[in-house]
């Protein structure tokens, strides 16, 4: 369903299990950044009423997820660590050339968001199936559904605001690029890295 070209190596879960505090901190910031991205789309494209409505809901939902992850951190006796750079997102967002029309810029942002959500969904599925911590397995199973919905929503908007065949071609190119990125990543206790 997600169309990802390179699945995460299941051994990534072993890295996560040795660094639960780190993965939860990274995950919390991923949720916060997703909320910020939704707000930036509202600010950048206020004339797109349907997008504004969906991004308003998404920002609330992502901050709700942030709060849930933060609760897991606190429940385990930890505190939220410092934000870290997301190598995956930084590298992913270099793919499309800068410039172009506002519509092209919007389509690129939406495709990046769809890709990030797709990879998050895939990682959450893996955690839900492989992690030994039952509480976290259930937690990630529930979040996996949200991420899948977000992925399809962003792709739908990209196809709405861009020419369908062009958007689909760009999506395939981004999927290929993302697979190349993932060959170098997947060895850290981060959601995407």
UniProtKB/TrEMBL annotation:
SUPFAM superfamilies: Ferritin-like
Stretches assigned to coiled coil: none
Any one GO biological process: tRNA modification
GO molecular function, a single term: tRNA 2-(methylsulfanyl)-N(6)-isopentenyladenosine(37) hydroxylase activity
Protein's name according to its UniProt entry: tRNA 2-methylthio-N6-isopentenyl adenosine(37) hydroxylase MiaE
Naturally occurring in which organism (per UniProt): Flagellimonas aquimarina
């Amino acid at each position: 369903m997600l169309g990802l070209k390179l699945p995460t190596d299941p051994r990534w879960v072993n890295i996560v299990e040795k660094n639960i505090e780190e993965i939860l901190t990274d995950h919390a910031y991923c949720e916060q950044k997703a909320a910020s991205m939704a707000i930036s789309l509202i600010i950048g494209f206020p004339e797109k009423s349907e997008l504004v409505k969906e991004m308003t809901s998404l920002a609330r939902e992502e901050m709700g997820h942030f709060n849930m992850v933060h609760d897991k951190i606190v429940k385990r006796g930890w505190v939220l660590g410092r934000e870290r750079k997301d190598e995956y997102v930084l590298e992913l967002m270099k793919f499309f050339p800068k410039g172009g029309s506002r519509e092209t810029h919007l389509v690129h942002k939406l495709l990046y968001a769809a890709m990030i959500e797709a990879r998050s969904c895939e990682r959450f599925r893996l955690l839900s199936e492989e992690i030994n911590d039952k509480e976290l397995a259930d937690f990630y199973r529930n979040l996996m559904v949200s991420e899948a919905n977000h992925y399809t929503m962003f792709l739908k908007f990209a196809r709405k605001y861009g020419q369908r065949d062009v958007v689909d071609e760009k999506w395939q190119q981004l999927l290929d690029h993302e697979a190349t990125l993932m060959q170098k990543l997947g060895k850290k206790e981060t959601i995407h890295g």
